[in-house]
Write a structure and sequence with these properties.
Layout: H1 16-32, E1 47-48, E2 59-64, E3 70-74, H2 78-95, H3 101-109, H4 120-123, H5 149-159, E4 166-171, H6 177-189, E5 196-197, E6 200-201, H7 209-221
Parallel strand pairs: 1-6, 2-4, 4-5
Antiparallel strand pairs: 2-3
Helix pairs in contact: 2-3, 2-5, 5-6
């Protein structure tokens, strides 16, 4: 008796529905993903082989761009924003700037401080999304006789008193040394001798002690 033949069935799978789902997911991510905003203060930092990540808490950052303009910012969290408000109140009181509570609140919401003290009231009325280094002239630091960064570091020290403050200096690779030196003078005037520099990570040269150390650490980790 012959064996019954099993009818062959097509192995073709209809992928139309799967493609529709894939395109729907892709469209969702395209529509919901926010592009990275452009930097308010574009800075090309120098390269370094050292790697150390800075916490975004208790952060006071001084930015120096390639035009020698200096800006001050703090960490983007509730604690640091409260410290920034205390700094502004201190600056306002000691320099009789006449800032209103609403103007101080507006400055707290802005990404950084970037004007002479006398122009802080004007900066307070700028929308936060329009604050950038092209609009604001920077904090006067170029002249040793009018180094307003001394005032700001003093206000920061008072605001963070009793707690931790990570002082960060982010300088452009082509920034002029005299301005950098005046920023360091502001640190020293307020007894702040410890700070960190922001750099771009570079590859460790082969054959150096640091290269061999990293290789040994990688072997241990593996």
């Amino acid at each position: 008796m012959g064996r019954a033949k099993i009818a062959r069935k097509s192995t073709l799978v209809d992928m139309t529905a799967m493609c529709d789902v894939a395109f729907l997911i892709l469209s969702f991510f395209i529509l919901t993903t926010k592009p990275k905003p452009s930097e308010a203060v574009p800075i090309s930092t120098p390269k370094s082989v050292e790697t150390k990540f800075v916490s975004d808490k208790n952060l006071v950052m001084i930015s120096l761009n390639n035009q020698g303009r200096v800006y001050l910012s703090v960490g983007d969290n509730a604690s640091d924003r409260a410290k920034k408000q205390a700094m502004l109140q201190d600056i306002n009181q000691r320099n009789n700037l006449g800032l209103t509570p609403a103007e101080i609140s507006a400055l707290v919401k802005q990404p950084f401080i970037g004007t002479p003290l006398a122009q802080l009231k004007q900066q307070a009325h700028f929308p936060p999304d329009q604050i950038n280094s092209k609009v604001l002239p920077g904090i006067p630091t170029q002249d040793t006789t009018n180094n307003q960064m001394i005032e700001w570091i003093a206000a920061a020290v008072n605001a963070y008193q009793g707690g931790r403050m990570d002082l960060i200096l982010k300088g452009d690779n082509v920034a002029k040394y005299p301005v950098f030196k005046n920023i360091l003078t502001a640190f020293k005037k307020n007894d702040q001798f410890k700070f960190q520099m922001v750099t771009n990570q570079a590859n460790v040269p082969k054959g150096t002690d640091l290269y061999r150390k990293n290789m040994e650490n990688n072997k241990k980790a593996g």
